[in-house]
Specification:
40% of the residues lie in helices and 17% in strands. By secondary structure, it is an alpha/beta fold. The chain is globular, with a radius of gyration of 22 Å.
Length: 402
């Protein structure tokens, strides 16, 4: 909980997808705070507007206060209420944490706030990664590898490892890293239908602001899943739907990305050492369970989800999930050579990763891999271990606002 210890007269942001523990973490923090005269927890989803928020805080703040504004993006122009309180001197002894699950609006609004320079924090609360999953549920497997990091290893070392992590990896492919889902699966051996419906409602609710028929949303979800491991553009996603404009599809994908349910990978130019514009992108759901939620929408599965969903190739989606960081500060991408037409699955933190279910990279892929400062060709039996090594260790990173 020390990660939330910020000075008074600061405003910090805790953001990320729904149901990953933002509210629980800050409620636990409030229960342990000892340096405040007043503790305020506010569910902003019940606030009418910024005036309502202003009046609530103005009447509640007394002395040194620690304040949590949960799902603050629910209040339009919420930052204006805080700016007014700040200008009136009412926040000079207040430590404020704002949570939200809509990235763009929350971060853009937050940057316009006072009290955000130097000491305020931005923390991205991500789902559990595979390292955390194995450390918690299979510590006997993890122990020999807990002190290792992929940057300190090479291909020969990986090839020499004799392990079988199929069981934990298959469990992670089923549950992803959302704590509630993991808990149900570990307790019951399956994920109850009502849990699936919670996350279906999250995905469909994100799209509720646009006037797009549900059949069209189902078609886009199906296209997203069936093209998941390929380079695609919005025209490709549009095919097979009744949506007329690729711009509409882009809007739908952008909305999900803003709510942390989809990640869109840009192309990285290894020659220029920079990301480059490209119509074609790789799009993945946030983690394996979220991928299954999109599949349930796309294939119109509404009950007995465990038995009814189609088989999906989730290895790439699950591996990509390991690149998420609490500081949200390293961009994952893919490599593609316009000259050779070769593609490498992932580029992350100056390392290239090519995932192979069988066989070896092509000659052109091999040439592209050699251009990376570090690279790994990951066969299926070694994939769980490499996912573990790429994943962030179990601690909260932090970003001070500059």
């Amino acid at each position: 909980m020390r990660i939330f210890d910020t000075p008074f007269a600061t405003i910090s942001l805790l953001y990320g997808p729904r149901q990953v523990g933002k509210t629980s973490s800050l409620k636990l923090y409030l229960s342990q705070v000892q340096d405040s005269e007043t503790l305020i927890y506010t569910d902003c989803s019940v606030m009418l507007d910024k005036k309502d928020l202003y009046e609530h805080l103005s009447s509640s703040i007394q002395g040194r206060s620690t304040i949590v504004l949960d799902e603050v993006q629910s209040v339009h122009d919420w930052h204006l209420a805080l700016r007014t309180l700040y200008s009136e001197g009412k926040l000079s002894q207040s430590r404020i944490w704002c949570t939200g699950s809509e990235a763009r609006y929350l971060l853009e609004s937050g940057e316009r706030l006072p009290g955000r320079k130097g000491e305020g924090k931005n923390i991205f609360l991500r789902p559990w990664n595979f390292r955390e999953f194995v450390d918690f549920f299979y510590p006997h497997l993890a122990t020999p590898y807990q002190g290792l990091h992929f940057h300190h290893l090479n291909q020969n070392w990986l090839n020499d490892q004799k392990i079988n992590w199929e069981k934990p990896w298959n469990e992670y492919l089923k549950t992803g890293g959302i704590p509630q889902v993991v808990g149900y699966y570990k307790q019951k051996g399956h994920i109850p239908d009502h849990v699936w419906h919670v996350y279906r409602d999250w995905i469909l609710g994100t799209w509720s602001k646009v006037r797009t028929p549900e059949r069209s949303l189902m078609a886009v979800s199906k296209r997203l899943i069936t093209t998941m491991n390929s380079r695609i553009d919005y025209e490709v996603l549009k095919k097979g739907t009744d949506i007329q404009s690729a711009n509409t599809v882009k809007t739908l994908i952008d909305m999900q990305e803003d709510h942390f349910s989809i990640r869109t990978l840009p192309k990285f130019d290894i020659h220029k050492k920079e990301f480059v514009p490209s119509k074609q992108k790789k799009m993945y759901p946030l983690d394996p369970f979220v991928a299954q939620i999109f599949a349930s929408i796309g294939f119109n599965v509404r009950r007995t989800f465990d038995e009814s969903l189609p088989q999906m190739k989730l290895d790439e989606c699950a591996f990509l999930a390991q690149t998420l960081r609490y500081a949200d500060d390293i961009q994952a991408s893919y490599l593609y050579s316009q000259t050779s037409k070769a593609e490498i699955d992932f580029h992350f933190d100056n390392c290239c990763f090519e995932l192979k279910s069988q066989g070896l990279p092509s000659k052109k892929q091999g040439e592209l891999l050699k251009m990376c400062p570090q690279n790994f060709v990951i066969q299926k039996d070694k994939l769980p271990l490499m996912a573990y090594l790429v994943a962030e260790k179990r601690y909260l990173g932090e970003t001070n606002v500059s």
